[in-house]
Amino acid sequence: MKIRGVDFVMQQVSDLARAAAFYRETLGLTQEIYSEEWQWAEFNCGNLTLALHGGQPAPAAGGARLALAVDDIHAAYAQLKQKDARVLNEPTDHQVCWHLDVLDPDGNPIMLHHRADGSFGQNAPDF
User: In a 10 Å sphere around its CB, with 0-12 CB exposed, 13-18 middle and 19+ buried, how is residue 12 labelled?
Assistant: First the structure.
């Protein structure tokens, strides 16, 4: 078997319309697909597609987490606070990067992340 790449990352959500509005309006992602019939929405995250599967209970804590790269972690924090998003922490400095955590309407954790060198995705520097 040869893995060719990642097609998408999926978040399970209980209410597709509510979750899609959060990812579109609060996080500012571009929605490319939305189907009530299929309970499915897809968002362009630049180098990855995020899929939402509606009508599903959110998975138990401890699963994989989505980390979205942002240009300015402090501006992202201010925008999330202004939109009354459930932000778990202020931007945290880890020397090589900054991050903060926010919850979607189902409590799925999302990390917003900014590397100190400005890279993202597979363009990561060697540590």
Answer: middle
**CA-wise closest residue to 52 among 76, 26, 17, 84:** 17
Question: Rounded distance, CA 55 to CA 81, Å?
Answer: 28
112, 102 contact by CB (below 8 A): yes
Regions of the chain short of the pLDDT cut 50: none
| pLDDT on residue 62 | 62
Beta bridge partner(s), residue 12: 53
Q: How many CB atoms lie within 10 A of CB 54?
A: 22
Amino acid 122: pLDDT: 77
Closest alpha carbon to 68 in 14, 122, 121: 121
CA terminus-to-terminus distance, the chain: 30
Q: Is residue 114 classed as helix, strand or coil in its secondary structure?
A: strand
3 state SS of 79: helix
How far apart are the C-alpha atoms of 104 and 64, rounded to whole Å? 14
Q: Is the pTM of this model over 0.85?
A: yes
Give the per-residue pLDDT at 33: 97
